[in-house]
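FAQ: What does a ligand-bound record look like?

Like this one, built around zinc ion:
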Amino acid sequence: MGDEIVILGSGGGRHHIRTQHRATGGILYKFNGIQAHIDPGPGATVRINQYNEDPGKTELFIVTHVHLDHFNDISAIIESSRESLHDKNYHYFKKGVLIITQDSLQYISDYHLNMLNKVIPFKAGDRFNYNGAEIIGTKVVHSPNIEGFGIRFNLRDYSIGFTSDTMVFDGFSEQFSGVNILILNLLRPDSVTCRRHLCTDEVIPYLNKIEPPLDGLIITHFGSFMDGPRSERNHVPSQVKKLKEQTNIRNIIAAEDGLKIKISDLVNM
Ligand SMILES: [Zn+2]
Ligand SMILES: [Zn+2]
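The answer part, i.e. the structure of the complex:
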């Protein structure tokens, strides 16, 4: 099984957009022989080349909400997913599926939307089958002004969830029940709370309520209080240590820019 996660950016929020102290290119998720790009923020095309990945292989595009660190490079990523845009008669080739919040669509040109085979406006609770995976929208509590969803892939051999940006809430744990690997957007360390995102101390009880226990947890999308312009030091290692001590999860990995993680290393199969 060659399924893999590639971190094209472990940073989240505007300070990392501005400084690129941590990159903001999103995540490549390779499953069942195809490539999905989730949340291509600023620099996604730069990072995909920098880390020797092939943008031409992407055929599933996912934008969980319209914030720039999730949305900004989507048009460039769609256009980069093919070597030729059109034939000699200027008939444009169609390729790929875009899963996206309804309210993001107005910011993508018809020119780029027409390059896709299918555009699927998506929200929590929606389901879509693609290439052997059942894809389910999960709930987020993030910005009151825009739509958003997390996403879960149920495959034959395992299940993986991506929280996207969210706070914790009643039902957070239950919607990831049966997930083997969770990709958690952990903007802030320890008890540094935020009304838009979660922090380590808040999320630990919710991680421990996921049944059965996760095989693997990947923390990513670190904000500026975690590591960067507004933090005295990189808090990521201490958060990994705390999560290992206070949860029942066997494998906990902190994302780094360019890190490639084999699914088979995390899942008991
Ligand atoms: Zn974000
Ligand atoms: Zn956001």
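Follow-up question: can I read anything off the structure? Yes, for example: The chain has a mean pLDDT of 97.
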